[in-house]
Specification:
The complex is a heterodimer. Chain A is mostly helical. Chain A is about 70% helix and about 10% strand. In chain A, α1 crosses α4. In chain B, the strands form two sheets. A four-stranded mixed β-sheet of chain B has the order 1-2-4-3, covered by helices on one side. A two-stranded antiparallel sheet of chain B has the order 5-6. Helix content of chain B is about 45%, strand content about 15%. The chains are: A mainly alpha, B alpha+beta. At the A-B interface, α5 and α6 of A face α5 and α7 of B.
């Protein structure tokens, strides 16, 4: 079972009453594989098909409803997702380089707060002049 | 005390930021009183107080500055250790002083954020790098364990080679 897709399907079904076709549109995945996964989630009692009797006219609508263990499944998946790092090697390298630059400033007797204020001032000036130019058009 | 981007400058990299994050120790009732007081002083508070909200926004309309005031910052425990670890900074190079969250609590706060992103992890790595060997590592690990982010912290330290050993 594709755990990430299963969690996505369950989360969608937990947010609203969805028919199978609405669900397939939402996950924008392959029809057959999504259907197979929905079937498996039903077999595991994570998802239940239900018939809506709310409409007085037309065919009764069938939709998918998440079960309490389905909700638990989503919660646990989110917990596992939180365990992974968001940054890649390049992000970490970048942070190390920035820390090194900041340390070099301190070593040179320059206050990082002073430099930060200068940079923020420059950023503000760029933003305001860009806005002025944009408005002048 | 300062947390977030302005606290980061004291310990790690610095980057431009548009808002100021502050943490205060206040229960819900105190927080409501503070919000009412701020409103009386002319600050704008876009949302109604809520007991579940971990922070509230305050906008200084004169300076057009937004401040996030956190009463429940992620992973932060308001206790004597937290207060002891704070650092005084002089952001304007004059006599005006502000308290900044300690570097260890800063790291844990960043990693424990519910909406943690790349930037939060980069901020944590930059503090781990710049403060390598200077941090109180047993305290850092104890706090990270309490916040449920010890494995995240250890993985980041391993990947960034910022473990002191």
């Amino acid at each position: 079972m594709r755990i990430d897709l299963a969690a996505t399907i369950l989360a969608y079904c937990g947010e609203a009453d969805l028919s199978v076709s609405e669900l397939i549109r939402k996950v924008s995945g392959n029809h057959d594989s999504t259907m197979a996964l929905v079937k498996e989630l039903e077999e595991r009692s994570l998802l239940l098909p239900e018939i809506s009797r709310k409409q007085s006219v037309g065919r009764p609508r069938q939709y998918l409803r998440i079960t309490p263990i389905g909700r638990r499944f989503v919660r646990e998946c989110r917990r596992l997702h939180d365990l992974s790092l968001r940054s890649n090697d390049n992000d970490i390298r970048k942070a190390l380089r920035q820390a090194e630059l900041a340390q070099r400033l301190v070593d040179m007797g320059i206050s990082p707060y002073a430099r930060f204020q200068e940079m923020n001032e420059i950023a503000r000036n760029i933003a305001s002049t860009a806005k002025t130019k944009h408005n002048a058009r | 005390m300062l947390i977030g981007g302005f606290a980061l400058i004291a310990y790690g990299q610095f980057r431009t930021t548009q808002d100021v994050d502050m943490a205060i120790e206040a229960g819900y009732e105190e927080s409501v009183k503070l919000q009412a007081q701020l409103q009386k002083l002319g600050y704008q508070l876009p949302s109604q107080p809520s007991p579940d909200a971990p922070f509230f926004f305050v906008t200084d309309l004169k300076e057009m500055l937004e401040v996030e005031i956190w009463t429940k910052p992620d992973g932060v425990v308001f206790d004597a250790d937290l207060l002891r670890k704070r650092v005084r900074v002089r952001p304007f190079n004059d006599s005006f002083e502000m308290l900044v969250i300690g570097p260890e609590d800063f790291i844990v706060n960043k990693l424990a954020r519910k909406d943690r992103g790349v930037l939060d992890e980069q901020d944590a790595v930059s503090v781990l790098a710049r403060q390598k060997g200077k941090l109180d590592y047993p305290y850092l690990k104890k706090r990270a364990k309490g916040a449920g982010v010890i494995e995240l912290l250890e993985t980041l330290m391993q990947k960034s080679h910022t473990d002191p050993n």
